[in-house]
Amino acid sequence: MPSGCCIRGLWILNNQDSVIFSRKFPVVERRWRVACEKESDDNFKYHLLPYDSELASAFADRKKREGSARGFGIHVSQSVKGSDSWVDDPITRHVISLHINKEEKGESNLLWPLILHIKGPYSILVLPLVEPHHLKSYSRMCNRSDCGSAVGADENLSSLLLDLPSITGAFIVAHTIGEIIIGEAVESEVVAASSPSVGGLLDSLTGSIGISGISARPKPVAAPVAASTASGTAVSGAVMSDAPKMGSRPLDKDVLRSFISSAMPFGTPLDLSYSNISAIKSTGFSSADTPPADRKQPAWKPYLYRGKQRILFTIHDTVHAAMYDRDEIPDSITISGQVNCRAELEGLPDVSFPLTGLDTARVQSLTFHPCAQVPEHGGDKQAITFSPPLGNFVLMHYQALCSVGPPIKGFYQLSMVSENEGAFLFKLSLMEGYKTPLTIEFCAVTMPFPRRRVVSFDGTPSIGTVSNTDHSVEWKIITNTQALLGRALRRLFLEQLDLLHGKLKECLRLDQQLEVWLMKTVILKLSLVVSFKMIGPSLSGMSIDPKSRLKLSGFKQCEHEVSIFPAVKATVEISTQVTSGDYILWNTLGKCPVAATPEA
Amino acid sequence: MAGKLLSPTEWESVIDDYNLGGAANLHRWTGGASVVDLCISSLLRKDFPVQLKLNLLTFLEHDSLDDSPLPSSSLSRLIDALRSVIQSPSDPFALKDQFLISTTAIFITSLLDNDELISGSPLRDLVELFLTIINRPNHGLDRHTRGVACECLRQLELAFPCLLSEITPHLWSLCQSERTHVSQWYVLLLSTTILNVVKLKPSGTSISSMSNATIPLIPFSVPQFLIDGVGSDFVWKEKEICYKELRRVVAFLLECPQYLTPFGLVEFMVAIIPVAEELELQASLMRVQFSWLLYTFEPLLCHIFLGIYFKFLDSFQGQELEVASRIMLLSKEPQHHLVFRLLGLHWILGFFALIVALKLDLLAYCSSLICNPGDASGLKGVEADKGVYQVTLFKDGLVSVSAFKWLPPWSTETAVAFRAFHKFLIGGSPHADASSSSVGTLIESDIFTPYSLKIITFLLPFEMLDCLFHWARWMRKLKFVQLDMVANEFVCTAPDAILYGLVGRCVASEKMLVDSTSESKGLVPVIVACIDRLLGCHKHHWLGEHLLVTLDKHLLPELKKDYSLGSYFPIFERISENDKVSPSGLLELLMRFTIFLVEKHGPDTGLKSWHHGSKILGICRTMLIHRRSSSLFTGLSKLLASTSLHFPDLEVRDNARFYLRMLICVPGKKLKHILNKGGNLPGISPSTHSGAFFNLQFPRALSDPKRSGSIASYIHIERVMPLLVKQSWSLSLPNFGINPDKPGFFEGIRDNESPSDETDTDITMSGNIISESEMLHQQKEPLRVMDAKISEIWYTETNTSANVFDEVDKLPAIYAIVLKFTSSAPYGPISSFPIPFLLGSPPKNDKHVTQSDSLAIVPVDNGHAEEENFKAPVCIELEPREPMPGLVDVFIESNAENGQIIRGQLHSISVGIEDMFLRAILPDDLAEDDVPSYYVDLFNALWEACESSSSTGRETFVLKGGKGVSAISGTRSVKLLEVPLTSLVQAVERHLAPFVVCIIGEQLVDMVKARGVIKDILWKDFSSDSSFDVTCSPTSSKGPLYLKYLGDEDEGGVQIPTSKKNIGYFQILIFLPPRFHLLFQMELRDYSTLVRIRTDHWPCLAYVDDYLEALFLN
């Protein structure tokens, strides 16, 4: 305890259930074999890892048995003894087992735990190394003959999962691979004042060369960059656009292969940072890349920045809201957010800054990048110190309640005046009671009708435009940012009540009786989905003050402003943006889901 | 090296083949040569693309898994190749790195399987190569390759523990000096080496000091103790190495985690924790060093922290709350992928399981966290009353979901809610708990029973049990694991407190239940599935039963007695099946429902009434099957009685009477047997989610078992003449009758064996109807048909039930029987056959009653004394469109004495080819005397016409009535029958007498004439028709050729002269409706007969063959 994380093998299947990529790690497999031989008995012995064809057919079998690739997850009437859903736990949709049938021997070989990660058209299966007794334990669980396991009482999956960091690690491996094959291995966005978004790691690498003009680097600059975009971004971009066609283009196995051999050469993952690995692969090192004299270079920072120094922060709030407009149900508004950072600083400096707005009543959780030194919890302000990695990174995540009122308030009413005709009304007030000026980049409201088709629609918005597609009506309240920059318009939006009302004619899809029944029942719970993006102070109250003169008692040096040690002159840019997450207005006249809030 | 060099494309195919099906596929490529050698030579070629070389290396790694260990020579070659690649300035680093890795992997798998190789030079060479590479700290260009080499060494050290133990001091100094990003790899290598040293404590003085290296790094030699025998000879010498120095190394290492990647940190922890334990480092140091892991957003690091936490539980004392709340929050953080949030919940659950033993109090804390995470003020009140918070939570969860009524019952939410409910219920008595005493006390407990079973009444109005989070549907899975926790806490803490809270809720929830009954009916199948699951479990059977009791007690009185009640029938079925639940409540409900149905009945509701009535009867039937009748008697008989009297639908009324009669008259055991005969019980639909389609399924389910299945076993229809061919190929249907009269005759899948006859009608040609008779053979068992009289007696004299049972033996009558026929064979429409009435027979001891009643009975004495059979003849008229056998399905419809309608299917009747045999139709103007000669002429004409060579074959004949023309195209066939003469003649007389048109041969004529069965035909001598012998009987005994052939040596001895003699001929002419003919000319000898067959309808030959065999050989 704790055991490490090793991978015996991994497979990638396409949506036709055939294996398109597989990798086995003989060193880890060897370890498994030794462990098995030690604990083998009549029911348990070592089996070779399946070949691709065997695995594919086992996966297809499971899919057939469990109804879908993921399966039922919980014990339902179709569940079969020995299958995953027999275990009756939702996590079996992600940690699956396969029964490999060896044709010639006629014996079945249980393969568990297989991490299943579905990304685009691909199913990624990763098999981490566990100990034989874990496998035996799971085998007992999915073959139990009674009506199901009680929580916490018997041999259960939870203690197995707690005991096995390799499963957690395998998930991370699977997710990373998923991002690579789909091409989503992008760095988090950091907004700078000069340009809407700054680039990633490669930009800092190449940018540094350009600006500082160091000619010591022997290799030409352009070539590696072009090569890396060709191998990484271009390919992944193509995969992404092809994704709806379900993988008509094969994934780039060479990219994946080289990533795997760098990230987990022997099946033991050591570094899963795709941007670092691809930078090392494409750029390599030159004799100019000298290590710092006084301290060790962290493994997650293979290159050091050289060039003009600056540090950028972006505080990004995502607002989730459920508005009911009812007396008995309180509205619920939560904010989840993150602070993205990009530190273009030479050497290996420590950065510290004061973070304000950490009132514990509002901020529920606060988690940090491993590079940060975590301050003691408590208090409204905290000093964060971190040693930044290269490129864009997420410095911290937080969850909080809204410090001010909801940015968009209102109600939505829809009632059916006949079988297929409805009247609706919604009223929104934007940023009511907001003192600080915020710029709204866009704001739109969507009325989705997932099960019905909108035939015609008639409504008058007080502002903006309304259009409809087959399954939704969309009201674009604000589309043009430029138009809103004037103060007058901003005032308008601070105060104005916007109103859209109209009639809606829908077409019933008369497929089946069932469908009609469903629609009759479902129609009244429809909701309004609001999406928007704002630039301005964060709603969570989270803020970094670049030049604050506040003096705090507990700390002496670093609280005043963003400070860098060893001290350098660097510009600090901080931006804030607020976007909508699940921002839903429930139909006041219909039914809505709600959870009770705990009584005080 | 036998094989040729493979080209790049060939290699790609090799690798693909291998991945798909393993090494077995490789032979055709390699031609027996060593795969490794082939690979090595390809790897060294300059013209091969790098990408392919990388693939080859991976392929080699894969291959080493299932190939036998490589010999030392191959390994040496591999190292040579590796060296040349590493030293080559042109090869890219990617290839060098991969070559290092693959070589190490191959070495590890090969050497582990072959101990002798450890001491050999390849391993030493390999390690030396690696050491050379890593021994250049801070060197710029190849820094990543140095990292890879470190990892290779680490893997070797892991595979051969203490391999590097003697050079640990060097590793440490390298580790200290390395400052580039690959320092992580040096750190990991060092920590792994130290772990092995500390764990295994190899003997030897060489590693006594960490700071002073006594052995040079290079040349490397494998430690002696490894060569002597891995693992076995380690000497455990305490304090052999200098622990103080080791502590310094560990202190150095403990400063490193900040520089490691998350996964690097995992490996680091694996190595460092046992070392820290061994060195007895202060646990608080670990806490200081690693607490930050909990506050990163990397799930893996959190998990690692948990590992440390449990390892050093003591030093983390007081942090339980913090840890639990952090993991709890992990599951709530939206930036994580769902999986990690699920994992977080599982960790919490596992966490609880581990902690519970240590610190029960924590539960209370955690529960409050779930309620209100982060709210510190919530903690204060908790300690006073642990249970209350959980109660509130569960309660709130239930209240929250009351708004989710619109979710369909088959939604995941519902399924998961019931899963939580199930877990909650069984949580009190896990399967592993062997003692049943706790269960017993739980059942007996006054509190628990009403409480736990009330839960279901909670759930009824809730179509979803989604708590702790709101509206975010996509998080659904997450939420339900949290429910697990809630349930977990419920059962872990004192039940009293929970009960206290929940019982209070029940009052309010019942109102809700009543209000929403009609809306929650969709949930019924889910509830039923839940109950079934519990009932199916050995341990929790009692819970299922108690749920049923609760439903019986609390749900039934609340249900509205209107048409919506129909949805609840699956629950009723379960209640009616279960002996533990008193049937009275259900019966009363059904009674009231019946009254409702009767009152509501109108012209529009006819179908509904019938539908619901049938369902009610289904329940009654289930009760009859599953329960002792004594417990039911009063209630059920009342229900059935009033149904049979008042119910608007005739069929329901009849069935109710039927059941009532059974309830009263049949002893329980026999009754269950009778009812079970029908197979599946009506009303229990296997699919629990098809509520919307019940309307369609029910009628069929009800009609099937009761009628068709059982009526056929009481009323038989049989042929008067059994078919000669017991089963012909066209009749191989599974549906056959079992004749109780002649059980001995029944063998295998054979057809009916009662005498039969048929009527064939040919409208197109003659319009003539010849009918013969077939018997409807009805056999009745007394109780099959309800007797209204008896019912009445029972109603009026309930006290004299003893008499009633006596009188049951009286047989009922059935009236207005109509038999309907259908067939899939090519026959025309078959008209139905009415039988006015039919009375049951008396039992033997009650003869006088029968005699007076059985006027219309056609009694046929079949010799079975204990079973009286009553028969009526039935005649089926067929209008074949083609002469072929077939199967006629028979349906009966009838009234019983009391007006009850009986419907059903009887066993089918088979029709054979012989049923098609008719005499040829005579012209109207033919005199009676001329008939025999007309037949003979017709026979001869047809005989000639059916000869395929004949010219008549191509002539056409106008059909009678001018309705068409027909050409004769004949076919010939022969059949040799090895039967004695007399039996042949007898068979012909019995079955073919009407069709014989001519007999030739004095001896035969004499014989047949004397028997007197065949009359009115032409009798001929051989001499009277000389041409006959020549043309038609080339094999007759008189023919010279015939003698010659028989004179062959083979047969001459066997044949007895008399048997060779031709005795005579039968000429038989059969008309096959609608317009075909079948001609036989039988050439008789003493022991064999040759039948020459000609017909103008060749398909009939298939049946004729069987027929003849059956006719003569049987």
Brief descriptors of the model:
heterodimer; A: 600 residues; alpha+beta; nine-stranded mixed β-sheet; five-stranded antiparallel β-sheet; 12 helices; 31% strand; globular; disordered C terminus; B: 1114 residues; six-stranded mixed β-sheet; four-stranded antiparallel β-sheet; 45 helices; 19 strands; 51% helix; MHD domain-containing protein (chain A); AP5M1 (chain A)
Low-confidence stretches of chain A: 193-197, 206-249, 482-499, 506-525, 548-560, 596-600
Number of helices of chain B: 45
Q: Describe the strand arrangement of the main beta sheet of chain B, using strand numbers.
A: 14-19-18-17-15-16
List segments of chain B where confidence is low: pLDDT < 50 over at least 5 consecutive residues: 230-237, 356-408, 427-519, 678-709, 728-811, 841-869, 1026-1059
Instruction: Name the strands of the widest sheet of chain A in spatial order.
Output: 9-12-7-6-23-20-15-18-17
End-to-end distance of chain B, in Å? 77 Å
DSSP strand tally of chain B: 19
Explain the overall architecture.
Chain B: InterPro entries: AP5B1, AP5B1_C, AP5B1_middle. Chain B: It holds the Pfam family AP5B1_middle. Chain B: This is AP-5 complex subunit beta-1. Chain B: Keywords: Membrane, Transmembrane, Transmembrane helix. Chain A: Belongs to the adaptor complexes medium subunit family. Chain A is of the alpha+beta class and 600 residues long. Chain A is 24% helix and 31% strand. Chain A has twelve helices and 23 strands. Chain A has a nine-stranded mixed β-sheet, with no helix packed on it. In chain A, strands 2-1-5-4-3 form a five-stranded antiparallel β-sheet. In chain A, helix 8 packs across helix 10. The longest helix of chain A has 21 residues. Chain B is α+β, with helices and mostly antiparallel strands and 1114 residues long. Chain B has a six-stranded mixed β-sheet with strand order 14-19-18-17-15-16, with helices on both faces. In chain B, strands 1-4-8-7 form a four-stranded antiparallel β-sheet, with no helix packed on it. In chain B, strands 6-5-10-11 form a four-stranded antiparallel β-sheet. In chain B, helix 3 runs antiparallel to helix 4, helix 23 packs across helix 27 and helix 30 packs parallel to helix 32. Chain B is elongated and about 140 Å long. About 30% of the residues of chain B have low confidence. At the A-B interface, strand 2, helix 1, helix 5, helix 6 and helix 9 of A face helix 1, helix 4, helix 6, helix 8 and helix 10 of B.
